[in-house]
Amino acid sequence: MKHHILTITALLISFLPFYSFAQDSTKCKEEWKWDLEKTEEWQAWLNKKPAISLDYGFSNVSRKDVEAPFADNNLLELKLGYTYKKVTKYADYIDKSTFNYLFLNRNSTELAGGSDVPSDIETNNWQFGVGWSGGYGYKIGENATVTPYYTSSLTWTNLNFADDSLSPNDERIKQLYDESFRFGTSSEGGVRVQATSLIALEAGYERSIVFERHLFWKWAGSGIIELAANGLLDVFIKEVFKSSPAAGPIVFFVLKSALGYGIYELRRDKMNWPFPSTPPIAFDNVKFGVTFTF
After folding, report:
1. In this predicted model, what pLDDT tens digit does every residue of 57-107 receive, in sequence order?
2. For the chain, which ranges sit under pLDDT 50?
3. Nearest alpha-carbon partner for 102 in 133, 74, 123, 141
4. What are the structural domain ranges in the chain?
5. pLDDT at residue 43, as a whole number
């Protein structure tokens, strides 16, 4: 009898680890799934590819309290960075792609052929910065995709006003910016068509603002509000992908672009909205480009 009791006890003890494993398996399953997703992200990033992008576009310059209109500008832009993509977990016909880059552009009235209106304010501007672009694309072939994308950038802009005969108000504003680099931000929404593994064609609409002064704490407060709004959108977009993967890329593009447009429309009046601040100089750019991935 004693021998049987010892045998049963040994069996129970040996079973306990398996019972504990079964109890924890549900909890660990989600953790493993999260770790696997993060591992796949890192593997995709380690397999990133260098990319060069060239853009040409049309630019409208404005500031709420400037009396004379700005002349129309054109722009040329160069981007150098890295891109990577991977098939999403939601559907095998949807790719997630990212393009992180440094950029330099020239935005000037001269590129637009000058202005025929003497009262227009002509400018010659240089801008550089860093951008983060991402989106979800529909695969339409082995290497071909159509990707609605959204981009955020930090910028530094050198504004050069060509006009000397300005009103006292416009001259005052000119002195805040003229021939000096000023900090700013921008957002862009557009569509990227990956024709082959080497070449992608793009069309986008960008809104960029340039601060007359960088008031860090007000800018940071405004940025936190924007980040929080983007975080809420990300949660909602993830749920859309889970329930209807085919609608996910469009919902991502529409919601991200709408938020970016709304935030920058509010900042046209107050550069550090919602905090009291002056209007910024704003650039509204329509851009067309080609990206080479190596």
Report:
1. 999 999 989 999 999 999 999 999 999 989 899 999 999 999 999 999 999
2. 1-31, 33-34, 36
3. 133
4. 1-47, 49-293
5. 57
Contact 72, 112 (CB under 8 A): yes
Interhelix angle for 216-243 vs 248-267, to 10°?
160
pLDDT at 26: 46
Is the peptide bond prior to 276 cis by the omega test (within 30 degrees of 0)?
A: no
The structure tokens listed for 150 are 């959204």
Best CATH choice for the domain 49-293 from the list 2.40.128.270, 3.30.300.180, 2.40.160.20, 2.60.40.1940: 2.40.160.20
Q: Is 52 exposed, middle or buried (0-12, 13-18, 19+ CB in 10 A)?
A: middle
Residue that the structure tokens 């009791």 belong to: 5
Tell me the pTM. Answer: 0.82
Q: Among candidates 56, 100, 105, which has minimal Cα distance to 81?
A: 100
